[in-house]
Amino acid sequence: MAVREVLQLGNPVLREVCAPVEDFSAPEVAEVVSDLKDTLAHWRATTGYGRGIAAPQIGVLKRIVFLNVDKPWPLINPSVIEHSDETTVVWDGCLSFLCVFMQVPRYSWIKVRYLDLSGEWRKIKAEGNLSELLQHEIDHLDGILTLDRMIDIKTMCTRQEFEQRYRSQSPYGPATT
Question: Looking at the domain assignment, is residue 7 inside a domain?
């Protein structure tokens, strides 16, 4: 439908807790999903980054996430229902502050429950990159930013330094530009 502005760090909407979607079949839900899809595709095409986006990043305080990892994947009212005891430290960035990256701890695996667009409840066990991505996006729905989970401020680096030193260790792999 539309490429929307991605709210940037400092915008208070990013710190709000999102309300659950009450009617998954409401036209506005389909519109938000479409806008998330278009916005994510735009960011990926223009920056090389963007595997997922959450509704509050476009100013919508509803529990909607859109991922595009191998395929488009909208999740309505996602929640982590189980997780590993083990954690792993990963490099993380965010479309809401793509100028910096940092290391954050994430559960090694999680189980997520969510509604699909047909209104069916689904569960998935996610590991590795998908696990950290889902944790990142679900955090957005609770007003939590990557900065809040950073293991040490000394791990923060600019996008330029990330590209030069750490990108190959991230889910994005070697730079293509």
Answer: no
